[in-house]
Amino acid sequence: MRIHLPADRAATGVLLEIHGGGFYLGSAAGSDVGNRRLVDTLGLAVVSVDYRLAPEDPWPAAPEDCETAASWLAQHAESRFGTTKLALGGFSAGATLAITTLLRLRTRGVTAFAAAVLQFGTYDLAGQTPAGRLIAGEYFLDAYAGSAPDRAHPDLSPIYADLAGLPPVLIVVGSDDILLEDNLAMAARLSAAGVEVDLRIYPEAPHGFTGHSTPMAEAALEHIDTWLTDRLSSTSETVGHRS
């Protein structure tokens, strides 16, 4: 994990960041600039996890690594960072892994994370929904799923999961993103499960748009900053963990 800390103040919370790259590209270091911006702007500590990549390490390697990092934070955030206010964030494939991580933690009774920011994730890797069929045949699907017998398994395709009990979620996606319908479907599923969800669709914005220096990206990042600040400022300093 790569850890970014405020230089001259105590952390106001901790964000666990999961990088994108189609499950087979990218690294925690590749998020350094964006993560440093969050530290300097919001006063958060940011922890970025270098999960194992496909195809050398297909599912479930990546979610196992992300769950391990999240569990470590749930147990050690207060002693390591002086706060128990935790949020989770993911970019593209990282958004898929972020919601998968929350589902894994919920199964174990860990409720430490108070919010999640999901930027244009992919949630149906099985291609069984109209949204999922739009990306059927993409290389990253085969690389990540490997020899999994059922790509509709909720740990692979969280659109099929029971989503009840998850913390508030912000979904960010562009109107020109091929994954728009997938994100709309996930927002609807979260809402139907009783999860507080805030869906933000940015006009004429493609996949990955928040990673570029454009006015639309700046607007989206400002919205993310405000949303995260509001959620973490209303979170009590208590880590939720049931054995």
Secondary structure blueprint with pairings:
Elements lengths: L1 E3 L9 E5 L13 H11 L2 E4 L12 H21 L4 E6 L1 H15 L5 E7 L10 H4 L5 H7 L23 E6 L5 H13 L4 E6 L12 H19 L10
Parallel strand pairs: 2-3, 2-4, 4-5, 5-6, 6-7
Antiparallel strand pairs: 1-3
Helix pairs in contact: 2-3
Structural class: alpha/beta
CATH arch. level architecture? 3-Layer(aba) Sandwich
| Approximate helicity band | 25-40%
CATH superfamily, by name, is Alpha/Beta hydrolase fold, catalytic domain
Number of strands: 7
CATH topology: Rossmann fold
* Distance separating the two termini: 26 Å
The side-by-side strand order for the widest beta sheet comes to 1-3-2-4-5-6-7
- Percent strand equals 15-25%
Structure description:
This protein has one domain: Rossmann fold (3-Layer(aba) Sandwich), CATH 3.40.50.1820. The protein contains 7 helices and 7 strands. The radius of gyration is 17 Å and the shape is globular. Mean pLDDT is 95; it is low at 238-243. Helix 2 (61-81) packs across helix 3. The chain has a 7-stranded mixed β-sheet with strand order 1-3-2-4-5-6-7, sandwiched between helices. The protein is of the alpha/beta class and 243 residues long.
